[in-house]
Specification:
With 343 residues, the chain is an alpha/beta fold. The protein has 16 helices and nine strands. The strands form two sheets. Strands 1-4-5-6-7-8-9 form a seven-stranded parallel sheet, sandwiched between helices. Strands 2-3 form a two-stranded antiparallel ribbon. Helix 11 links the parallel strand 5 and strand 6. Helix 8 packs across helix 9 and helix 10 runs parallel beside helix 11.
Length: 343
């Protein structure tokens, strides 16, 4: 079986046979080393499509990732709802400064954004076009993966973390209403990206995970939102969940998402036994302990163990830290090829 990178990615998500597990980063790829090599730097690469495209392609060109993943922050939808964000710095991402829903009454007054007029959305869509142009003069064999916030994460941005955590217990119907509104916008944006010919959209929704959201409420509040959302997505449906997601793995596997990216706090071997025959498990080499602070040898050891434990797509467990050494990322990619030679 001789597959292109794009074929390998799509077949993996669909749980179809592949020649080898893809090796890529399903999460953010901007690092200082790649900025220096591509001459495209944060914070400009968050807001300028030419810089975004140049830095995004660098992960494939200089590391060997079998996909191009962008953008590097997830500010597009929060900004569309009226959240204010910091610009970020050379080696730190933008962060939220303020949000529009201060009190319960504000939910009913919330205006849904016109995504076609949102700056961040326009930047990502234009970067998509430029990336497609940059890839080997139009080479269509490399998958493009765009990231966006999921409905729980977006709801948390819109109403603020304090309200989000309080309302999930005290005002669950209100929070559910806000999640449904946010899910509609997530679906619209995801489909805009698919209409622009991306190959995968990863929704990052860690605010629905056990680290923040009570697991007993996941099935009653979040799962119905996910099922409705995934039915609306006109392409591959991918989800990332930070933290130890063990307690909600089974309902996540029934949510309609075809691929689930898990952090290293979720044991890959256990997850593979539990749901590995239902969805494409993605992950989960530690981005901090191993990729940032480890050596090439420790990176290879953990990556090979992840493959042995049953991952169907070798990826960091979360976004790559900006100061991650280039040699560790290259070792991460090399580990996949070495694993198949050894087995």
């Amino acid at each position: 079986m001789d597959l292109t990178m794009k074929e390998r990615f799509i077949r993996s998500v669909k749980m179809e046979p592949v020649d080898k597990v893809p090796v890529l980063s399903i999460t953010q790829t901007g690092t200082v080393d790649l900025m220096n090599l591509s001459k495209a730097f944060w914070p400009k690469a968050h807001y300028n499509p030419e810089e975004m495209a140049a830095l995004a392609v660098a992960g494939h060109t200089f590391v060997g990732f079998e996909a191009v993943r962008y953008p590097f922050s997830l500010l597009e939808l929060p900004e569309a709802f009226g959240c204010t964000m910091s610009e970020g710095t050379f080696d730190s991402q933008p962060h939220q400064l303020d949000f529009p829903v201060k009190k319960k009454e504000d939910v009913s007054k919330l205006n849904l954004p016109d995504l076609s007029k949102c700056r961040g959305v326009s930047v990502v869509l234009e970067a998509t076009r430029l990336i497609q142009k940059r890839l080997d003069g139009g080479n269509d064999d490399i998958p493009l993966i765009a990231g966006a916030l999921g409905p729980a994460a977006l709801a948390s941005c819109v109403c603020g973390v304090h309200n989000y955590l309080r309302w999930c217990i005290q005002e669950p119907d209100l929070l559910s209403e806000l999640m449904v509104l946010c899910a509609g916008v997530c679906a619209e944006y995801t489909n805009m990206l698919y209409d622009a010919d991306v190959d995968g959209v990863l929704l990052v929704d860690s605010e629905a995970g056990p680290d923040l959201f009570p697991p007993p409420l996941f099935e009653s509040m979040v799962l119905p939102v996910y099922k409705n959302l995934t039915q609306k997505i006109r392409g591959l449906s991918l989800l990332h969940m930070c933290g130890d997601a063990t307690a909600i793995l089974e309902p996540m596997a029934k949510s309609g998402f075809q691929g689930i990216s898990i952090e290293e706090k979720t044991n890959m071997a256990d997850a593979s036994k539990l749901i590995g025959n239902q969805v494409c498990l993605i992950g989960n080499v530690s981005p901090a302990r191993t990729l940032l602070l480890g050596t090439p040898d420790t990176v290879k050891k953990e990556a090979k163990q992840c493959l042995a434990d049953g991952t169907r797509m070798l990826s960091p467990g979360c976004g790559i830290a900006p100061r991650t050494p280039l040699e560790n990322l290259k070792a991460f990619v090399a580990a996949r090829d070495e694993y198949y030679l050894e087995h």
